[in-house]
Batch of 4 targets.
Target 1
Amino acid sequence: MLPRMSGSDDGWAGLAFTPPWRHYQRMALAAFDADLAARRRATHIVAPPGSGKTVIGLEIARRLGRPALVLCPTTAIQQQWGSALGLFGGAEAPLLTHTYQAICQTADPGGALEAAALERLAAERARDTAIGVEAARAELDGYEGAARRRLTRDVATVTATLKREIARGEHLDLAAHDLLGPGAAARLAELQARGVRTVLLDECHHLVSTWGYLVRAVIAALGDDVHVVGLTATSPLDLSGEEAALYDDLLGEVDFEIPTPAVVKEGYLAPYQELALFTTPLASEREWLQQHHARFQALLDRLHDPAPPGSAEEELSFGAWVIARIRYRDAEAGESSSFSFAAFAKRQPRLARAGLRYLGSAGLELPPDAPRGELTSAPPELDDWLALLDDWALRCLRAHPGEAAERLWEQLAGGLADIGFTLTRRGIRPGRDDLDRVLVNSSAKTLLVADALDAEHAVRGAGLRAVVLCDSERPARAPEETALTLGGGLALLSALAADDRTALLHPLLVTGTTVACAPADAEGWLAALAAELPPEVAATLRVEPLGGDAPLARLTADHAGWSTATYVPAVTRAFAGDGPHAAGRVLIGTRALLGEGWDCPPVNVLVDCTAVAASVSVRQMRGRSLRLDPGDDGKISSNWDVVCVAPELERGAADYHRFVRRHSHLHAPCEDGSIESGVSHVHPQLSPYAPPPEEQFTALNLAALDRAADLDSARERWQIGAPYRGEELPVLLVGAARERPGSGTAAPGTSAHGAAAASGTSAPGTLTIDPAPDPARPLPATGRLPGLAAVAASLVALAAAAAGSASAAVAAATVGDVALALALWQAA
């Protein structure tokens, strides 16, 4: 049922924004006026969380003066639009608000999609097994047991794919609006009846998949004169291909964009600093990690174990399959059985190379027409094994309907998951492996979270309002053969409640299903929530044991009104307040619930314990701590990352590289006050290419804790109110060479301020200048610098060498001058 559209169609006329407009808000509205004057039907505005995008959108709707629809990703954001109407002198307007989910519900009309999915699967099976489509369809119809269950899963997957393809317009016999479910179709009919002609797409960065196509179909159904307004904190510059085309079709180019640092420098967002702590896995975790690849090797050994003669397992033998596949090559459907190895290698070079290495390393006979030499003498590498296993899984296991094939499929899927890959119906695909999962969710991180919160509490006292964001409430999946507990909100709550330093902060966990705390804190939080909840819900509040290994208490209510829609606002008000019902200073929450759209201005510390590195999510999560606090004119926020590195392992730097990708989207002041993206604004010694040596972790952590305690310096680095140039500049990365952890190769430093800032281990004048665009910075030079960079580097190195005992400061100044000169030359 649609909510009632408040007011009449001309109800905008009596509304007006009462607070003064900010400078950049007036610029955004001027961009809209320009669109209107040019008869353009879309306005696209990019501005950070907390900058007032909602009131800009309402003002645009007011100026258009027509019934309007707001679509947003969450109910929390949906509620903010109604609240913002109060700033316009009223509570009613011809305005409807819905979530994207309410409009984008889909259906399978007449079962046509399921039938099409079965046809596609039959065609795939015919191609993989070199049989006819009719025969493949008959085999699918005859599946039973495990094969039937797998087919059901595959049909659901392909049906979802078909929906996306139809939404993209790839199937002309079915239009996108035909996919709308009954509820969504009814809402569209109501929107048409009410004459909606303005559509505001809040957090429109969500519209890069099926949602976008369906929203486009809904807008088209509303009429040709609809004006579309896109509001987001995320620039679409990172999009490419199909996503970029869809986004451009919906909204066109960005009409106005303001970067987060500009809003901070103008005084409309809180200044902030980016901080990080580094650790290595606990001994138990490290021991498991060291056995990580050994398990994959054990899987390969098991696949080569002899099967009982005449059994189904013998028929499905991996080794026998590879030998036959490479020696005889099973010609593709419709081709001669004399399919040459050269033709095979041209068509599938990765599989051909892997097969030759497999046969050659085992001393087995090679195909007579296959090449010999160094290629076949090398043992198979990981990529070779993946090629062989992918072919075996698709052409052998999937082509066999029996239970034995299903068991082997599941066994292989589990082994591949150990090394970071997923087995799908289309083959092996990259995924997150258990190694990465252990690093992201290491219990060593919880100790550093406590360190960060203790340091923040020491300087902020009762004013501390910290939010710790995680991916999920429950621990991530841990291998069954280990006793590892892999992160999650409950693990964080248990650790912080058990630590004497943070227990006194009364941490509370809030997720989509659970509100929990330490048993000793239950009565305080219960009283705080009772003061904020509706009386009928508060009257049924109670505490119950949460269960599990740690003694935790769940807060719940025996009332239908107990839901995220009621308890999240109540928790927020209790957490934000400083009155008699203030209960705690730390909230632990999932990024899905508190990472976007959640509004709590007093939050001044954010600890990111998620596995997210995407620009959209990173900006949204950071936005939770940047809103101005009416109760604290001097608010300065700290945003923390906690990074776990296992330097001795091949893939042990995965969490650090995620940290690098995360900061490539963020701008923050460096130690000298310059605003930079990339990890150098966290610490000048951090490199985007490799983690620091383990022996430097303690010094880096102490430096971060010291910076957290010096809030005055953090504010001064922003130079709020000082003139600034609101544009992005290219950066040339210059610094001293240092040893990469675990290797003998040099990695460039990350500071453009000189060699002394990058490393104290290399002699003055030993420089590395990287003229290529830096992937960790979103503001790279427009192209590679030509030979002038190398010439300049040589001149600096020669000058430093000739100086002999020249001080590091002189060398640093020289490098800085060269870097500045080259960057300005490139920009010109």
Target 2
Amino acid sequence: MRNWKLLSVWPVLGLIVIGVLWFAEQSQVELDRRAAANDGLRDAATLSKAYARYIDRSLEQADQLSLFIQHEWEHRGNSLKLEELSQLGIFPASQYAFVSIINRDGIVLTGSLSATSVNSLADRDYFQFHKHHADTSLRIGTPTVGRISKRIVIQLTRRLVDGQGNFDGVLLIAVEPAQLTSFYDNASFGKHGLLALIGQDGRVRAGRVGEDMLQLPHEHALPLIAGDVATSALYDRQWFADRQARYVGQSPLGHFPMVAIAGFSEQERLSPYQDTWHAFEMFAVAGTIVIVMFIVIAGLLSARLIWRNQRESEVRLTYRLATESGHDGFYMLRALRDRSQQVVDFEVADCNERGAAFTGLPSSQLVGKLLSQLYPKPYFYVVLDMFRKAMEEGFNESELQIPPESPVKLEWIEYKMIRSGTGLALTARDISHAKRHERELWNMANEDALTALPNRKWMAAHLPGALKRAEDSGEMLALLFIDLDDFKDVNDTQGHSAGDELLRLAAERIKAVLRPSDYVVRLGGDEFIVILNPVADKSHVVHVADRIANTLKQPASLSATTQDTTGQRIASIAASIGIAIFPGDGTDIETLLKNSDIAMYHAKAEGKGHFRFYDQSLSDNLTRRLDTERALQLSIEQNRFELFYQPRVDSVTGELRSMEALVRWRHPERGLVLPLEFIPLAERSDLIMRLGTLIVNLACAQIAQWQDQGYPVVPISINVSPRQFHRGDVYALFASALSRHHVNAALVEIEITESLMMGEAENIDATLSKLRKLGIKLLIDDFGTGYSSLSQLQRLDMDVLKVDRAFTSELGLSREGEVFFNAIVSMAHALGMSVVAEGTETLEQLEVLRGLGCDEVQGFYVARPVTASEAGVMMRKRFLLPEAPNRL
């Protein structure tokens, strides 16, 4: 301790010398700064006085000018023309923005500038001031935007009085603030000097900092020490927008209640001293470096003697404290060599208790052990090679997963080995918990939480490498895109818990039929991807796809739990599978996924529970469908549709009873397109809503046109899609169209299909009831192809039942067809509905329908769909059957 106290003398002595050096440097800088400040304050006070005299003279000139104008105004009986004085140069434009006389009502009577756009100035502060104060001295306002000049000006005003001394108006002289700061020049003030004119109320009238107008953070910009006393001070940088401190002098004006302020930038005033101060500073820095170097050298030489004596004891003490108090295991290993100096083993020379605990032994037993005694063969040779490598390279660091045969009772360690003399210093840290946490995070990011399958992120990371390996080996790789059919029905009918159970079961079944080298991935929802790698030929892919489809079709027992019951429910799973093969169907992830998805949708369209390989025609079909959908959307927007009309006549007389509106698409390239080619597409893409609205309005517009042309119009029936009926406000659509085109509701009929009856009964009944009250007849179209029941027909109270053409075509061919049709007619008549036979194409069918009591017929035997003009001709003809009618 005595030696170390002597050693500390060097730093203390050096600090004292350095302190004296820097004190001398700072003292000189402070002296220079005070001298500069005194000069700046003195110059600021001098300039402020000069500026005060300048402003005093300028304001006196303006005051004399105002007295002159006032005298002339009163002397000439209020008939002075300031415009004439302005032309004589009485009001120099460089000095005055404008001069005007305002009468007692605030109206500008005359002025140096035109004021035709100004109605009244009676609301101005200066006008109100002079109106209510008898003071006739010159008033100096604050800067404001003038209504006459449209510029920022300072308004100098004087009260005008009539012969009885009453208020008679205001004389206004406007001066631009820049005119009051023209005193500024760079030679005197510098680039960042200050010049300002402030009223004793503390408000700035005019000011500038360098070339810019003065910008201060407060309304009362600068603290006036005393409004009637000339003084100077250093203002902090917080008062100025450019954040520069300034020496500021202020002087009151002799004849006006104003204070003139002039100032210099502290930074500019101190700049001449900067080089000198920098030299002082560099001298102090150099001196400090020399002193420090001297202290370091002297201290090192002194400390070397002390360090030699204490090195061994400190190393041992530090090592022991570090090893015993830390969480890491520390070992000192001595290398044992044979006669050829080859390292053949290591002895544990020392260790801490933490390191010994890793092996399950106390340190007293571990010290002195050989590695060959701790590690069984052949694992000992693996460890020996690792330690030999550290001896050769001098350093080795890595992470190691501990095998079961190791005496170290951990899962993972992070080790660091450093060569020390003839042995190794080894540090080992237990990272098992961190590795488990890392593995859990990886699983969370790459595994699906519901099925424990790899997820989309895992697939995105795995597939590039798999594709590269397949490309290098010249093998194929297959992607199977699996979509569970009707999975939504399980969720809707048995609940989401049953749906989740079904997804887990599907994942297990798919995984069970795959090889260890194959993978199944859950994309999300009810979609899975199977990666088959490697693939020898397509027959293997077919075999796997068959096995997946068959295993999924097996009935599944689900534990369905509801609010009322808990039990087993049986669900049948089917899947549509699309297959894309690398490299033929794509060479990257995005292409393979897209093509397998396309193949899956085609497999689903062809019949659920099947698989389909991708080929280019599938993509072409999809492209054509999308192109057709876009063209259909554009045609709806441009109204490229036309209605054709097919008549419906009395089966006995042939009299025209109604016409069905049938839409046709006028395609710009394909010409006339029939409904079967675009209505299903419109249904799938929800364009049916807009198309249905267009058809209703076209039909109503045509009815109105026929009426205007004098045709005997019959009711027109319009088909309404079930999707539009459920998702759109059909009642509002028809009510709006009838009102817009001024059409009687009795001339419109609505045809709906049986599938509509499968919807929510209350909503359907309410809508149909509203349409019936509106006066529209309701027809069931294509009867016999859906799932309607007698109770549903009775509940809906429809007007007309149209029997599907499939039943009409059987008439005259079999007795069963007539019996069935007769049953339909009898049922409809019992429910108060008339019957229409669709698809009547022959005279024989017509005769049978008459015998069965069918009310009306519609079909090619009567007429094919015709244009609107041809339909008008049919309305006038009235009787349309080609045979001689039996007219009643």
Target 3
Amino acid sequence: MRVPLILVLVLAAVLPCGAARAQAPTPPTPPAAPTPSTTTPAAAPAPATSAAPTAPQAIPAPDIVRRSEEVSARLRGLEETPAQRAEIEAIERRLPAVAEDARSRVDPTLKALAATPSSGMLDNFVSPLLAARALLNGWAATLSRHATQVESNLAELGAQRAAWQATRTEARRTGAPTAVVGRVEATLNSLSGAEATLKTRRAHVLLLQDRVSQETEGVENLLARISAAREASERQLLSRDRPPIWQAVRNLDALREVPARVHQWLDEDSATLRRFGQSHGAQIILHALLWITLSVGFHLVRRRVPAKVDADPRLTEASRLFRYPFAMALLLALFLSPWFYGVLPRPVRTLLFLIGVFPVLRVYTVLAPRSLQPSFVALTVFFVIERLDDVAEVVPLFNQLLFLAEMLVAITLIVALLFSYRRQPDESPLHLARAVAMLMLAAMACGFLLGAIGYTRLGRLLGSGALSVGYYAMLLQALFRVTQALLTYALRVGPLTYLRLVQQNRLLIERRLGHILWWLSVAGWVLLVLGNLGLIWKAKALTVALFGLTLTRGNLNLSVGDITAFALTVWLSFLVSRLIRFVLEEDVFPRLPLARGVPNMVSTLLHYSILLLGLILAIAAMGMDLTRVTILVSAFGVGIGFGLQAVVNNFVSGLILLVERSIQVGDVIQVGDLSGEVRSIGIRASMVRTGEGGDVIVPNGTLATERVINWTLSDRTRRVDLRLRVPFGTDPQRVLNLLKDVCANHSGVLRDPAPLVFFNGTGDNGLLFDVWAWTPRIEDSIALRNSLGLEVLAAFKEAGIEAPVPRLEIRMPEGTAAALDARVPGAPAPLRGPGVTPGPPPPAS
């Protein structure tokens, strides 16, 4: 109890003193003391010298003039540039119109949302709002950049002004000359003026930024309400939204509203088109100039195509398309519309689709079989009618009646086309057209029935969706054919034909690019169909949700999007590496005077570098902290040092072989008893092709550390050795002359180095001669040895020199033959002749 009692006494003494200090008057400028609740031993107040900001340093007197000139130059750099002024003025000029347009859409959109519109009408409302949001977001980013720059400049001027104020104080204290003090005062005045100008600019930018933010918030709110209405519409897709047609026709008085509502709708579309023309005048002019330029270019190209058709039949389709250069140019120009205007309002998009009908029909009347041309025309006409059906949505009954009439006419026409197909010759395009027609007939019949019983939204999704699916496929197929024709022609004329990679790989390039264009067309078709059916937003949401799925294991947190980004980045790095190496090997290396082996070294090292960079980018795209990766790689390196020494040794040895170039691809080497041609130098091992036709995998470490004979390091010449034997008694000089003549007359023997023929002594059965001849290609050494040997034998035969016959001389003791005859009954007679010398009799047994 002694310790608590001491604590109580201490508190009793301290608390009254604290209360007295709290009641006492506070001095004018006391230092701020930390409160007991926030004071800890680790957070003790720092000394005043470290806590106080650093005082501005006065500029030395000898540097005042120079620093003043630097300040003047810097202030001139801080002035607003014409480009910056133009950006701000453009935002100020266009912001009121955009704001007025966005506000004018609020009431009509809210009224339409109250009537549960279809997905198509919702898209009509969304398109201009998305365009306005994109424009406002761009302006917000521009203003934020300007505000940040102005704020940074103000901070810089504040620091400069403090330094020059300290300089003025110091100059007055030290009695500096009046001119120096005047220069300091002038610099301070310039800084103050620049600060005032920057503050005015900052206020202007911040005010404009606030206006843009308010308009953006209004657009976002309206888009959120449309999104909610869309979700409600999708939930009601399977519910009846109209009464059956036999009940709806009882209220035909509703059709009286059609003229007024249609007129109002057309006025709104006309106003939208006018506003679009006013806000995108420059883009429209550039778009028109692009179409004119393409038309003129295609018209000039058309004159050169027929001359090349006979030489290359692949240009036949291109020549047929180039007969209509204006239609081709219009189709390509319309395809590039999103790059000119961004998000297009619904009336503008409809107008562009209607204009695009003409070039699409022109392409199909040129390329499609005559039996299928009526089908494409009918599909295009119904798509145009379906585009104009947006006007009918303003009156539900009129919309329902018009939809049923359209489906009924379309069904009748499709049935007629199916009957007409039976009278046409049996062809594969006709089978595909018949299958597509059957699918469209089924979809339109279902749409007609659903629309008749009151499920108009679902029926329009099926019926109109079938029309849109067919026309979009037709549109993108036409664009694909036009682009493929341009590609086919571009690969057969200059300047691409001057490239070696095009000359040697034209068909490969054309096939690969054709596959890429085809898949791009399929992707574009899917996006267009989803957008027309009103499912693009749901598809985006599902895609985002799919890529957002997360796998968590301890500290590891990976999503499907991260894994996909990693895989795509690695895959793209392989593609980029292959493409770059293909271009280098086909068109760059052959044109440069590089030493042998340098192209392979550059290609391989570039391949490794691109893959390493791709791996780093893939890890970054996956969202993994690179510092953790560094630690992991370090730990992995330690493991490699202990467990994968051979792999690392072979990898480093491969790099050494590539850089040192002592062994290159195509060299003929010999390692121990292995001899063959080097086909590749890989990461871990190299592949050697033997003369017997086998592929031997040799670790790179073996090639880098062991004794290797490289027969083709400096050149590909090879010496052929031929050893000959002639009988004793032959004139050696005559043989030497004969061999020299054979080597001199042989076409495969190099003259430099000259063949060498020399006498190599005597052997068991004759005189020995050696022939050393050189061939320029090591691959021809065996053939040269064979042909040279045959010619030497022919020359010997012609000169009467016979090849020595090996002789074996056997000496037998005297009486050996008689003894053998006595011991072996029926043995042949003993050998006689000059080659058999009788020897002494055998010893007695």
Target 4
Amino acid sequence: MEDLLAEFLAETSEALADLDTALVALERQGGDKETLAQIFRTVHSVKGAAGFLGLHRLGAVAHAAENLLGLYRDGAASVSPAGVTAVLGAVDAIRTILSGLAETGAEPAGDDAALVAALEAAQSGEAPPVSLPVVAEKPEPVVEAVAPVASAPAPAAVASEPPVAAAVEAVAAPAAALPTQSIRVSLGVLDELMTLASELVLVRNQLLQIARGAEASPFAAPLSRLSRITSDMQEGVMKTRMQPVSAAWGPLPRIVRDLGTELGKRIDLVMSGGDTELDRQVLELIRDPLTHIVRNSCDHGLEGPEARRAAGKPETGRIALTARQEGGRIVIEIADDGRGLDLVRVRARALQRGLATEAELAAMRDEDVARFVFHAGFSTAEAITAVSGRGVGMDVVRSNIERIGGTVDLQTFSGRGTTLTIRIPLTLAIVSALVVQAAGERFAVPQATVVELVGLGGGGATVEWLDAAPVLRLRGQLLPLVALGPLLGLEAARDGGAPVGGFVAVLQGDAGRYGLLVDTVFDTEEIVVKPVAPILRDLAGFSGNTILGDGSVIMILDPAGIARMAGVGAGSAVVDDSLVEEVDLTQVLVFRAGGSPTPIAVPLGVIARLESLPGKSIEIAGGKHAAQYRGQLMPLVPIGHWMPPAPDAMQPVLVFQDGTRQLGLVVDEIVDVVEESLALRPSAEQAGFLGSAIVCGRVTDVLDCAYWLRQGDPSWFGKPDATVPRLLLVEDSGFFRQIVVPALTSAGYDVTAKADAVQALQLRAEGAMFDAVLTDIEMPGMDGFELLAEVRRDGPWKRTPMVALTGRAGPTEVARGRAAGFHDFVAKFDRDRVLSALSAAIGQENRA
């Protein structure tokens, strides 16, 4: 009987683990027959086994729940939230009873009269309140080690019902016994097997190290076979420990459902990728972080129904939970479509707690500000509730994830939601690693993060320097480099001198790829991962340590931690973030010119036309190239080296126009037109270019249109006469000023550009007058709306037309802008729309 009870506890605990999810799905789907049948079978089996084992309290609770579910199954009653709540209460009570059985071998004492009454009331359509019992800790789990038997098919009947129910049927009607398809093994036994396999790997590595130094050793062949057997055994043991990640988020539908009821919110939890497998040890360590993040999404992230309606969203909030495998890591994303983090409040709380100064906060990007939520004790909640508000949680989430060699990152979008991305290793026990050396010290790099190895010197790649930072141009892309020795303080940094030898290990970090500069690369080894000692836990660059075959203890590098220490990100070299200028999403034309492999980008809105001119139309005029184009002689300006094409060939040209004047910029080929949000890194070293940016994943030079227009026609920006409209441009982006001023000048405006509203108002104080003001909306300090209010308040510009520029020009934004008093509200880089709005605004004012 004891063996049968143990089997019953294990089977029932596993069945109940899926029951919460099924009940929540049943409530959402309104009585799905298949889901209902699954729930009914489970509760029915629990009741039957309880009667067979003489568990009267358990049988009474299960029987009451079965009666209600039977009515739902037969269509005699409709599934209701009150009924589902009552059944969930019964499931919790069953768990409590099972916990007592596991501890003492007997049913714990307890009164379930109120719960049974609630279940009976739900049968008649009444909905009395149900007090759900506290769920006790589960008995020690076991996992199923499947051993396929070739001589017999898998018994479907046994698989669909718990074994205890099958045993009851066997007593009533004995049948031929079927071969056992699986056995249950305690997790303690599996952990011990994993430890022994790890030690065997270490011994194997030591023996192989010895064999490498011996010539014609008689042990070479046996060691080779031992190595293969060890690898196979290690893989087999690992498979027994692998579990689907859905086992960690099984309770989440129930949690979301209960929190939605408590908070008065409608929440839909969508899960995908639950069959992705990872090591049980890792799985156990991410349960609590996942639960906390989902609870935060329910409480902080999602708005209530009224707020969502007001924001134009569906009343039901959505939390999406996805998992996938990338190399040797599992990536889990938790995304909600809520309000996003209140970054204004985050900044204020960070300033209040002394985490950053006002100047530092003003210079920070939104994603950096959002990461303050990972600081210990940080909370933006206005009040402490039973769900959240104590500032305990996200720092623990990050600590727990990083303790197992993982990372957690956060992205938030105002009004659109928040996404947390967790990257964790598949296993913490044995991994394949590349052993490298820097400054005389050896380190292990997880093989799953190594993309490729590049040799330096001897005809291989060479290291270049960009603003004192090492970079590697690899297949046309600029790869930031991190010199491992200087980063870890093991040697002095090289002062601008490129190393003549060594290797670059191209690694995949969280934010993108970068190169790790090392002196020597050794072999790849299977290593046993040991946790970092507590005294070294705060060192971001390490994820553990290991013992090599020669007995040496070395540190295991954490590629994501190394990237954070060095400050490298996706597609950029190690540079000061303050030098990088973010530019709103815009259409850019990508082309090549001058025979250079590096692509060049220019905003499409500043170009009048794209043409392919026949070679026979290109002539020499005044010692310079020109082309007959639309009845005029158009100057041609090449970028870099250019040879005129043959008469029967075609020449790609970018045509710029200013009234009747035209100029053609000669290019090699038009590559594409794309939409990009440019992160421009300004540069004054290369004439004719504003700097560089990442476009379509490649380092791209950004064209300075004004420079090339002056090359073709020095009078292009000549002094205008008094009849030309005077225009004030207020724009904090230096990139946009340099792009839009030539376009506006070409359209016949005398343009004065200022970087902020304060400088613009200084012109007003000095008595300057303009026919129109074109201003950006989002600017540091005084924004466009505040500038408009100040101008309209009083003074000589009170009646001056003002047109707003913005990266977001949807119907809502346009309506708001016009209501505030702007003559128009137009999108950046839409050249035709900007010119049309200015013309209309100035014409309207002149008519007035």
